[in-house]
Amino acid sequence: MMTIKEKNTQFIKAEAKRLGFLSCGISKAEFLEEEAPRLEQWLKENRNGEMRYMENHFDKRLDPTKLVEGAKSVVSLLFNYFPSETQRDDSYKISKYAYGRDYHFVLKEKLKVFLEQIREEIGEVGGRVFVDSAPVLDKAWAAKSGLGWMGKNSNLLSKKTGSFFFIAELIIDLDLEYDTPVTDHCGSCTACIDACPTDAIYEPYKVDGSKCISYYTIELKNEIPKNEQGKFQDWMFGCDICQDVCPWNRFSKPHNEPLFNPHPDLLSMTKRDWEELTKETFGKIFKKSAVKRTKFSGLKRNIDFLKN
């Protein structure tokens, strides 16, 4: 006979698959013992640069029961965003995750449906949904629940699907069957470390957030340091270098989420087109995109930095 716990776990995993998630793993909602000293040290060394929000809610980042009262399980989910087509070679580049509609909204909708389905099937379940916008260490939870391992570029890597996916969570007050972590399969490979043009991966498994091209082009509000000139390899919003060179991303397959398809103009624009970008075109191409985060002025600043 299957226990209620097993039955509920099976339902949740089947429902995740039905809703289009790549994979689903579950871990016990408890304090992240191993992460605490690492996060503390990283912040102490100012590896977060101007991302001061990383210093807020330290306790909540490490303890899901402080986010959801009575939390028992963290359900981690992966959602593919690998595109079938990429930008032209003679273009300034944006990170593949930002090609289509802002993932925060797309995934939040799916997660709300997911939680509703769980309540319909199982009954009164308390919980919250999270997509990279609350103090949740999503990569740590995904690794803990066996969805992949933390690579040397500090991204979550999966043998089956690489790393071009979003991570989201449901933190719920339901007792479930828990998964176990998988082993590390980076081996002696240093492709990501060797390829990073700003040396942001300062040692294996450790990334200095304040030196990452993604940080410079999205998070940094001031001028980009002059000493980084010529290193960005045409990335104007985000950066995929350490993912593009990762051997595990040979296994990435195109997503089938229409909302993540890019605006047609995005793929056809050349460097010159970007240099002549108007506020109007910016608004049209990135209407509901994560690129809006950097604003028109921010993207212009990045393009000017690449041009000089």
UniProtKB/TrEMBL annotation:
Cob(II)alamin binds at R61, D132, N153, L156, I167, S214, C239, D240. Its main location: cytoplasm. The active site is at D132. It holds the Pfam family Fer4_16. It comes from the Bacteria. It is found in: Cytoplasm. It catalyses: epoxyqueuosine(34) in tRNA + AH2 = queuosine(34) in tRNA + A + H2O. Keywords: 4Fe-4S, Cobalamin, Cobalt, Cytoplasm, Iron, Iron-sulfur, Metal-binding, Oxidoreductase, Queuosine biosynthesis, tRNA processing. Its EC number is 1.17.99.6. Pathway: tRNA modification; tRNA-queuosine biosynthesis. TRNA binds at K221. Binds 2 [4Fe-4S] clusters per monomer. Coiled coil: none annotated. [4Fe-4S] cluster 2 binds at C196, C212, C239, C242. [4Fe-4S] cluster 1 binds at C186, C189, C192, C246. Catalyzes the conversion of epoxyqueuosine (oQ) to queuosine (Q), which is a hypermodified base found in the wobble positions of tRNA(Asp), tRNA(Asn), tRNA(His) and tRNA(Tyr). Belongs to the QueG family. Monomer. This is Epoxyqueuosine reductase. The lineage of its organism: Bacteria, Pseudomonadati, Bacteroidota, Flavobacteriia, Flavobacteriales.
